[in-house]
Specification:
By secondary structure, the chain is α+β, with helices and mostly antiparallel strands. Among the domains are: 86 residues, Zinc finger, CHC2-typedomain (DNA Primase, Chain A, Alpha-Beta Complex), CATH 3.90.580.10; 139 residues, Alpha-Beta Complex (DNA primase DNAg catalytic core, N-terminal domain), CATH 3.90.980; 74 residues, no CATH class; 115 residues, Orthogonal Bundle (DNAb Helicase, Chain A). 49% of the residues lie in helices and 11% in strands. The chain is built from 24 helices and 16 strands. The chain has a five-stranded antiparallel β-sheet. Strands 13-12-14-15-16 form a five-stranded mixed β-sheet, sandwiched between helices. It has a four-stranded antiparallel β-sheet with strand order 6-9-10-11. Strand 14, helix 13 and strand 15 form a beta-alpha-beta unit. Helix 3 packs across helix 4, helix 16 runs antiparallel to helix 17 and helix 23 packs across helix 24. The longest helix has 37 residues. The protein is globular.
């Protein structure tokens, strides 16, 4: 596994990169005065409000507030994670990205080179196979596939090309012969799942035959597998590549690469169940859907999704199978629901899937359905109380028992607190007794009024100004600009400063840093762990309110700094008085300090 990218390299790379070049390679910019202007890629607008400053190496949109540096622009605009953005920026400079690794032996280096060469060969074989399937659409043997895509599924030539759709001919060895002529051995084709082998005879043959072909790409756009849909009544109707050195279905999402090629800010992802659902939605202008590959939505899938967006919408058929799939998705997403993330559940009418429904009612109505999808909390409560009579004690107790394991999977945060309040109202049980670790088992009690419960919750809870500032900047790092440069925190008796000060210094040197960039930059460090803990505690606050809060905290710290300076000066004057005669001015200064300092400091 490659080591971490040295922080110094990232700093140097950002410093030597010209943000105007980076942005203008993706947007049309016009120079006005010292800055460059264009239409914002992150929201719809008719008049340019997106400015790029060459002097400050910073972009800012006066319409939607988007801001940042070259790295954050690549992450937001190209939908890249932090490492991918660093690599992309390094390529524009003709640089290789170094890694912090231990010294490798000569044998280890040789093995690493051999592995990379083998992988490059495997990617070449998969690309050759995809090219072959695409070309078949233009051949007589592929007419049935082309007719299916264009006439039955109403797909345009543009969408067919975007997803690199093709067709596997109705032959046993067409692909095998083509790849063999290109230097790809049968053993390699078998390893990549392009061929299958009969156990009894050992005969090898094309795995995909007489099927419309859907290439599956990784996030770099390399083809790692295929899915195929039959053109006749053969079984199975859909067939996927098996697990291979390139393809692990529990980690990949069909359509994710294509989603990331779309320009503009990506707000959410819609998770559907089939390839054709993704393609049909894209045909109607909905370019933000992905599909799992014959498996339930896994935690690995969801981690990948939440690296890109803060909202995921699960889309299921309205039948029993859809309900069961929704339960699996619910269980997998619960541990990842930190504050700031959202999950919703959309159930389609009986007998419909996204492909049929979006073609029937159009993108506008389908998006309305997505917008009205059930929030996770509502879906969870609806699921838990199904079939229970909450007017009976048995129903209330059963609901509490069913809720406990779900609550245990949820991280601490607003969603968990909200669910506890709702469950407490539904069951009549004290909120604390609904938690998994609570003993004894839930018992109905008379609860104190909300105001009393909140007062109890606040007892003993004190948060230092530095802790408050740390939490707020973890959520809104760009507001580090509100922290005065001359604010000296070094004399504070605050253990948290060891981790907070380097983060604050970084933010003040890198204005416009996004939360995603901030967390990625400090990954694997003590500062990164502290940031992650506070990001999990971050509230969904109004940015303007946070800005005011940060200013208040800074005023408070500034006042403390003034008191510390006065105290230090007071002690300096007392010490000087024992050594020499104070001047008239010093006597006046000492008198003023005695008025300002509390008697305990005299």
């Amino acid at each position: 596994m490659a080591g971490r990218i040295p922080r110094q390299f990232i700093d140097d790379l950002t410093a030597r990169s010209d943000i105007v070049e980076v942005v203008s390679s993706r947007l049309t910019l016009k120079k006005k005065g010292k800055d460059y202007w264009g239409l914002c890629p992150f929201h719809n607008e008719k008049s340019p409000s997106f400015s790029v400053s060459s002097d400050k190496q910073f972009y800012y949109c006066f319409g939607c507030g988007a801001s940042g540096n070259a790295l954050s622009f690549l992450m937001e605009h190209d939908h890249l994670d932090f490492v991918e953005a660093v690599e992309a920026l390094a390529r524009t400079q003709g640089l290789d990205v170094p890694r912090e690794e231990g010294i490798q032996s000569s044998a280890s280096q040789q093995e690493d080179r051999r592995r990379k060469e083998m992988q490059a060969q495997q990617y070449r074989a998969m690309q050759l196979a995809s090219d072959f399937y695409q070309k078949q659409l233009q051949q007589p043997e592929g007419l049935a596939g082309l007719t299916y895509l264009k006439e039955k599924r109403s797909l345009s030539e543009g969408v067919i090309q975007t997803f690199a759709l093709g067709v596997a001919p109705d032959a046993w060895d067409a692909l095998k012969n083509h790849l063999t002529q290109s230097g790809i051995t049968e053993a390699q084709q078998l390893e990549l799942g392009l061929l299958a082998q009969k156990e009894e005879t050992g005969r090898v043959y094309d795995r995909f035959r007489n099927r419309v072909m859907f290439p599956i790409r990784n996030v770099q756009g390399q083809i790692i597998a295929f899915g195929g849909r039959v053109l006749d009544d053969s079984k199975p109707k859909y067939l996927n590549s098996p697990e291979t050195p390139l393809f692990h279905k529990g980690q990949e999402l069909y359509g994710l690469y294509e989603v990331r090629q779309q320009r503009g800010r990506l707000e959410r992802l819609l998770v559907v169940e089939g390839y054709m659902d993704v393609v049909a939605l894209a045909q109607q202008g909905i370019h933000w859907s992905v599909a799992t590959l014959g498996t339930a939505t896994s935690e690995d899938h969801l981690k990948r999704i939440f690296r890109l967006v803060n909202e995921v919408v699960f889309c299921f058929d309205g039948d029993n199978a859809g309900q069961q799939a929704a339960q699996r998705a619910l269980d997998n997403v619960l541990p990842l629901m930190v504050d700031g993330r959202h999950a919703r559940f959309l159930f389609l009418p009986q007998g419909e899937d996204p492909d049929t429904l979006v073609r029937k009612e159009g993108a506008g109505l389908f998006e309305q359905r997505v917008n009205q999808a059930l929030p996770l909390g509502e879906f969870l409560l609806r699921h838990l109380r199904t079939g229970l009579d909450l007017n009976q004690i048995d129903g209330q107790t059963t609901l509490a028992e069913l809720a406990r394991p779900k609550l245990q999977r949820l991280p601490e945060g607003l969603l968990k607190k909200r669910l506890l309040i709702s469950l407490s109202r539904l069951t009549g049980f004290e909120e604390a007794s609904l938690l998994p670790s609570a003993q004894p088992a839930p018992q109905a009690v008379n609860r104190p009024p909300p105001a009393t419960r909140q007062a109890i919750a606040r007892q003993g809870q004190t948060t230092s100004p530095i802790e408050k500032l740390f939490r707020l900047l973890a959520r809104f790092p760009e507001l580090a600009r509100e922290v005065p440069q001359d604010l000296d925190l070094s004399t504070l008796d605050e253990p948290l400063l060891k981790t907070f000060q380097p983060v604050l210094d970084y933010l003040q040197k890198n204005p416009g840093t996004t939360p995603q960039v901030l967390l990625a930059y400090w990954t694997g460090t003590e500062e990164g762990e502290a940031l992650w803990q506070r990001a999990r505690l971050a509230l969904e606050l109004d940015k303007s309110a946070v800005e005011m809060e940060i200013r208040d905290i800074c005023r408070q710290l500034k006042a403390q700094q003034g008191e510390r300076n006065n105290d230090q000066r007071y002690r300096e004057l007392l010490h000087a008085m024992n050594e020499r005669e104070l001047t008239h001015e010093e006597h006046q200064e000492l008198a003023e300090l005695m008025k300002e300092l509390p008697p305990s400091n005299w």
